[in-house]
Amino acid sequence: MDQLIEGPSHYIHIEQNEFSYRKHKKQKEEDIAICNCKFDANDPDSACGERCLNVLTSTECTPGFCPCGINCKNQKFQKCAYAKLKLFKTEGRGWGLLADENIKAGRFIIEYCGEVISWKEARRRSQAYETQGVKDAFIISLNGYESIDATKKGSLARFINHSCQPNCETRKWTVLGELRVGIFSKQDIPVGTELAYDYNFEWYGGAKVRCLCGAACCPGFLGAKSRGFLEDTYLWEDNDDRYSVENIPLYDSEEDEPTSKLLKTEHSKYESNTNGKIEYPVAMINGLASEAHLESTVLEIEPLDSCPMENMVDDAKVEVGKEKKLYLQGTQQTFAQNNAMISRIRSNTACRNYHIEPGPVTKRRSQHHPNGKSKNLAKKHVDAKLVAQLLGPKEAREEVLNYEEVKNQANTELDSLYNEIRPAIEEHERDSQDSVATSVAEKWIEACCFKLKAEFDLYSSIIKHATCTPRRPREMAQIPEVENDDELKYLTNQ
Ligand SMILES: C[S@@+](CC[C@H](N)C(=O)[O-])C[C@H]1O[C@@H](n2cnc3c(N)ncnc32)[C@H](O)[C@@H]1O
């Protein structure tokens, strides 16, 4: 019978995943993987130990089919062969789980159980939880289209906290045809030690939670390395100083104020300000990066004599180099993730993560560096129509306008393609074990390349004409409304 556990949040204790939106899969006999182990009483590893073919493929043996019968050691999820664990109240991070015995490296500790729900339902629930003020996140991704929600029903694994330097990790196993998530030790864990794994927390919106794991490598917030968080927070770095331009809403209640020894050690690294408050490494510094710095800027087109073409080409190379690094860093980050704990899934996730917002260009833009930090980068916006109006030859005007049209089409195509494949991409972000279908990836890459080429064609055409083509007198040009008069003055040389 399920047990109602009293704690900071009430939940129903379960020791097997629950399936509400679909039926539990029934394994067909022809799908059962049978190993070729042979039980040998003198060799403890013979009955489905490390050499077992099923173990090697993270698949549990099926009772009644394993050649080792009752001696099979590869049915740990099925037998709930958990380590001895103890619930305890942490200081600052709610409840946590302790090892109540010495645990050897690589051991299965406990299954992360909860309700298996669809990706759509996970999104709906995470929004609802946010509205209800549920501050702890318990939804983790299971496969490309499903998640496990342990918010209302779960095993003790739901109490394991996050650490940036964890002693445990999650692994997925196939058990009787269903995928399941287990917590495994990464190292020997002495009795009395708190268990923790890296949530690979994907921040999609909502409050930002200070990470109180105390690890030296901790970036300061849960999900601080996820793309959504970086882009939203706008961290950038100048030498050793890190800044954030956002007023960061925090879950940081008084009762959650950190006071543990572990945390005190960590705090001592950061200076106290005059109010005695701890300055966290990621601090909001007002005024350092005002909106003015972040406003879209106009592409500056220098007259030929003051801006040699080689310099422009060099600048362009630098920009391309930065973008390439940004792209590579982004992909590596995405592909490095395992099971991700999901923060709040917002419907605008897709656009935020991939810079393909419909509508006007976002005012702020972050540039990711290979070291995982971000740098602020103003978006250069060019008014192609205005440039075209000012060009003398008709062909030049038409060329610029045509390229602009192609660029707009490419953007629209990328937007609609993104909406189509968003579920697959978002699932993939959280779960590197399941690949995005090749056809989807190819379509996406093709559309991205098309967009990049369209932008390149437009901007190179503008640069070419702005530097080499005679301009029309201002009176002849039908100049559209221009917000920034400097741009106009510049283009008309006035
Ligand atoms: C899966 S629950 C872990 C159990 C939770 N501590 C509880 O009391 O129910 C995840 C939540 O615990 C908190 N948490 C886990 N690790 C944390 C950390 N390193 N720093 C701060 N809060 C943490 C966050 O609120 C997070 O959303």
Verbal overview:
This protein has eleven helices and 21 strands. The chain is of the alpha/beta class. The protein has three domains: about 5-195, Beta-clip-like (Beta Complex); about 225-340 and about 365-380, no CATH class; about 380-494. The chain has a four-stranded mixed beta sheet with strand order 3-7-9-8. Strands 1-2-10 form a three-stranded mixed beta sheet, with no helix packed on it. Strands 6-13-12 form a three-stranded antiparallel beta sheet, with no helix packed on it. The protein is elongated. The N and C termini lie far apart (about 80 Å). The model is unreliable at about 1-5, about 245-250, about 250-340 and about 345-380 (pLDDT under 50). Bound molecules: S-adenosylmethionine. S-adenosylmethionine (SAM) binds near residues 94, 96, 136, 159 and 211.
